[in-house]
Structures are given as structure tokens and as C-alpha cells.
């Protein structure tokens, strides 16, 4: 297992019927807190993917408009197709992961207890 905020190696320690994991620095995490890390990482990755797709859509729309305004119909259609493809990809991410246009915020994994 790896530490959520820096991917450092963790060792499992059984203390008083509570499973904890500790890194070489001494940061300790409960199993419950560690169970949230993959979820937070997933949501961060999805937010990043949607942001990148949004940027791709904005650029493709701009290039579509420029090509259209300059009378380059084939190039304009190519950019329009790229806009549609990116919009479809973004919609797939939204639908498959909650159907919302906004992703929920990540919880703070950086907070840890020093023992």
C-alpha cells in the first residue's frame, strides 16, 4: 500500500484492535482514511480529464470558427467533428460517473496524525 498524498510505502500496524498504516516518516493513517484515497484519486483524475476535454472543445470550436469564417469548409467540418467527439467523450465521463456536470470535491488526504 502507498501513502495517499506522496505514494510513499506504508507498513500495516495492528494497535489496540485498530489497523493503522505508517510511512517511514511516521505519518499514520487509519484503514478507514486509506479506503477513501482511491476514490479521491479517481475523482481528481476525472476532474482533470473533464478539464482537458473542455479545453480541447474550446480550442476546436475556435479553430472551427476560424476555418468557417475563412471559407475553408472541409477544414471547418473537420474541426466541427472534433468538437462533437470531445463533447461525446466528456458526456460519457459525466454519465458513467454520476451523471453530474460537476464532480464532487475531493476530501483532504494530506491531513494525517503524527505519533
Give the overall form: rod-shaped
Total domain count: 1
Using only C-alpha atoms, the radius of gyration works out to: 22 Å
Oligomer: single chain
Helical percentage = 40-55%
| Unreliable runs | 100-115
How many helix segments? 2
**End-to-end C-alpha gap:** 19 Å
β-sheet strand percentage:
15-25%
Largest beta sheet: what is the strand line-up? 1-2-3-4
Main pleated-sheet profile: 4 strands, antiparallel
Mean pLDDT: 78
Q: Structural class of the secondary elements?
A: alpha+beta
Number of DSSP E strands: 4
- Helices and strands, in order, run as EEEHHE
What is this structure, in a nutshell?
The protein is α+β, with helices and mostly antiparallel strands and 115 residues long. 55% of the residues lie in helices and 16% in strands.
Tell me what you see in this structure:
The structure is a single chain. With 115 residues, the protein is of the alpha+beta class. It has one domain. Helices cover 55% and strands 16% of the residues. Helix 1 packs antiparallel against helix 2. The longest helix is centred in the middle third of the chain and has 39 residues, at 31-69. 8% of the residues are buried.
Secondary-structure blueprint:
Layout: E1 10-15, E2 18-23, E3 27-30, H1 31-69, H2 73-96, E4 113-114
Antiparallel strand pairs: 1-2, 2-3, 3-4
Amino acid at each position: 500500500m502507498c501513502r495517499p498524498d506522496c505514494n510513499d510505502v506504508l507498513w500495516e500496524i495492528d494497535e489496540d484492535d485498530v489497523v493503522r498504516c505508517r510511512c517511514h516518516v511516521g505519518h499514520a493513517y487509519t484503514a478507514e482514511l486509506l479506503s477513501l484515497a482511491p476514490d479521491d484519486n479517481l475523482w481528481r483524475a476525472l476532474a482533470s480529464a473533464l478539464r482537458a476535454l473542455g479545453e480541447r472543445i474550446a480550442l476546436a470550436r475556435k479553430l472551427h470558427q476560424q476555418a468557417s469564417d475563412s471559407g475553408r469548409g472541409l477544414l471547418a467540418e473537420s474541426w466541427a467533428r472534433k468538437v462533437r467527439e470531445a463533447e461525446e467523450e466528456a458526456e460519457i465521463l459525466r454519465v458513467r460517473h454520476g451523471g453530474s456536470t460537476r464532480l464532487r470535491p475531493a476530501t483532504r488526504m494530506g491531513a494525517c496524525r503524527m505519533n
